[in-house]
Design a protein that fits this description.
about 300 residues; globular; mainly alpha; two-stranded antiparallel sheet; 14 helices; MetI-like fold; about 0% strand; transmembrane helix; cell membrane
Length: about 300
């Protein structure tokens, strides 16, 4: 009888131990998940609630009145929303594409066994370590119409420079902001793509060369498909960052001249930190969240529609 009882206890203890081991990973990760949800979910819900109230901090510390969808309607009717959205989409799409192409070209150059390439690799990462607002100040001086080195180079090459300067002309202000961002973040693409290209098996590349495949064919048919997953992810991350461009706009142009370089990120800053209109900025934030999630959702759908891409 005692043997039967002891066997039952052992089975129960063994079952309890196996259940503990089964749920141990969830127990260990639970505090981090709870903290992450608290840091993300609460601000989102708070801003969602605030978006339905008229709340201006210049009038009081509490929401003044429930206004329903009025903040959303006013955000769409605002004189700066659609110009800012257009500029933001241009910077996000064009900037991401240019940074990816340039980054891929630099990554392919880094693969070559050229003397001094180790130093180049070390220097390449330096721009990404600079705070965007500091990079903005650097380019502000380099864009100076009288003493800026970029202006001087353009004059030396015979390129036209607006009389009011690159940052003072509606035709060049947005492009100047995007150029500063391209300079800073192209190395990010280059380093990540370089690391991915190093992981491409040499045997496959050598076999393609033996079959007399051209360098373009090897890149397009072998290397790019093998680094496709990494490329898709970093493009998505960089697009989301560019969609929230704010620092360089604040330092370089403050959205001007006129609306020519205003972005959604700068409009959010102006409504929240200058006008203190918490209800309006909350509504604009949720409009931005919906837009960027719709774009990223479509991107992920088309990028990963083949099961082998996952």
């Amino acid at each position: 009888m005692s043997i039967i009882i002891s066997d039952a206890h052992r089975r129960k203890a063994s079952k309890g131990g196996s259940m503990f081991k089964r749920y141990l990973p969830y127990i260990l990760i639970a505090p981090s998940v709870i903290m992450l949800l608290a840091l993300i979910a609460y601000p989102l819900l708070f801003s969602l609630r605030s978006s339905f109230y008229f709340w201006n901090l210049q009038m009081g510390a509490e929401p003044q009145a429930f206004v329903g969808w009025d903040n959303y309607i006013q955000a769409f009717r605002g004189f700066d929303f659609f110009p800012a959205l257009r500029n933001t989409l241009f910077i996000a799409f064009a900037g991401t594409a240019i940074e990816f192409v340039l980054g891929l070209a630099i990554a392919l150059l880094l693969l070559r066994a050229v003397p001094g390439m180790n130093v180049v690799r070390a220097l390449l990462i330096l721009p990404t370590t600079i705070a965007p607002i500091v990079a903005g100040f650097l380019f502000r001086y380099m864009y100076n119409p009288e003493a800026g080195i970029i202006t001087w180079v353009m004059h030396a090459l015979g390129l036209p420079v607006p009389p009011e300067g690159l940052l003072g002309s509606p035709a060049t202000a947005l492009l100047s902001v995007m150029f500063a961002d391209i300079w800073q973040w192209t190395p990010f693409f280059a380093i990540v793509l370089y690391a991915s290209l190093l992981a491409v098996p040499d045997e496959i590349v050598e076999a393609a060369r033996l079959d007399r495949a051209s360098a373009w064919t090897i890149l397009w048919r072998i290397k790019l498909p093998l680094i496709k997953r990494t490329a898709i992810i970093i493009i998505m991350l960089r697009f989301m960052q560019l969609f929230n461009t704010f620092d360089t706009v604040l330092v370089l142009t403050r959205g001007g001249p006129g609306m020519s370089s205003r972005t959604i990120g700068y409009s959010l800053y102006e409504q929240g930190m200058v006008n203190f209109n918490i209800g309006m900025v909350s509504a604009m934030t949720w409009i931005t969240v919906i837009i960027i999630n719709a774009i990223i959702g479509l991107y992920v759908f088309f990028a990963f529609r083949n099961k082998e891409d996952w």
